[in-house]
Amino acid sequence: MLKLSLTSYRSNGIYRWVNSFSQNGAVIVPDTIAANLLVRILRAAEAEGGDRRVMLAAVGLDEAHLRNPLNRLAAPLALRFFKMLEQYFKDPAISLRIGERASMQNFSDFGYATRLEANLASVIEANVRIQMLRQSMFRTIFEPTGKPPFLLWECHPDFINPYAPLIEFSVATYTRLSRQILGEAPSLRAVHFQHKARFHISKYEAVFGCPVEFSKPETRLEIAARQVFRPSALANPELFNAASVRFEQPAKWMAQGKPDLAYSYFYLSSEMDKSPPKLDRMAKSFGMTERTLRRNLVSQGLPFRELLDRVRQDLCRLYFMEDSRSLSEIALLLGYSDLSAFSRAYKRWFGVPPSSAE
């Protein structure tokens, strides 16, 4: 069983809330994948032309379990999902294509703010730092001082071949992330995999743009230092800090023994852009009755409606700081069915209509 640690990274970094929320990894179940990550994979598969209901039914998953971003899915189910994708699309290389598509789109994904870091090295480090919340099946290590800088994927020796599709997906996501931050194809020096090639090598090389080798001692991706430390055009330290600080409150709730408040904050943050947030739906995803969750939220300090309002207000601040979306899009991302409802809420929060803040 693989034991994860964050001790090699910044102890007081911008994502310090991760350690507090996860109680230094103690509440993270080993060998699992978060529903939040599987949803991103599913969304990418839909973009490839997949039918969501058919894909979920093929592995026995339901929407209720996926709605809670902090739900954990066992490793066998995650691997079965990737196997299903290969069969569904009749393509053993689908994990690479999914990795190229599975990008974060807005602040409903707790990792979206990582793209606002100063350079690619900082972006990669931030993503590695929140890895335990996404999955605990393997560990990714980043060595920015390497010559050249490199990423390593550490996996239990018994799982190297079974985990190959998920490892390939992960390596492809870091390649896609690098391209997004750099605004150009990353100059990869080398890509090595511990497992054997699962299909023709030309498909791997088409994705990574460099020679790819297999059956190596370690899974490793090397990136040119000149790109890794170049200032990013997406850098926004003020917004990055605000987005990270937003999660310090639910981390404190977790430490104070108020898990329902903490989990509900994350659930609502993740669910906001997908469908109207409802207490009964959230309770079902937590495996409890609506009445029980309502009572727990009140006893822990915030009734459902007040918590929902707080999450919306927190997200609203970030979108206005981001300053790249229309009012209509922000309204939809906050779960409002029409612009007028959002405008009324905005004026209640800040005392002025949203149009005055554009």
Explain the overall architecture.
The protein has 358 residues and is an alpha+beta fold. The chain folds into two domains: 17-228, H-NOX domain, CATH 3.90.1520.10; 246-353, Arc Repressor Mutant, subunit A (Orthogonal Bundle), CATH 1.10.10. It has 19 helices and seven strands. It has a five-stranded mixed sheet with strand order 3-4-7-5-6. The longest helix is centred in the middle third of the chain and has 19 residues, at 164-182.
Give the topology.
Blueprint: H1 17-21, E1 32-34, H2 35-47, H3 52-58, H4 63-67, E2 72-74, H5 75-89, H6 94-101, H7 120-129, H8 131-134, E3 139-143, E4 150-154, H9 164-182, E5 188-192, H10 201-208, E6 212-213, E7 219-223, H11 225-228, H12 237-245, H13 248-255, H14 259-271, H15 279-286, H16 290-299, H17 304-322, H18 327-333, H19 339-350
Parallel strand pairs: 5-6
Antiparallel strand pairs: 1-2, 3-4, 4-7, 5-7
Helix pairs in contact: 6-9, 13-14, 14-17, 15-16, 18-19
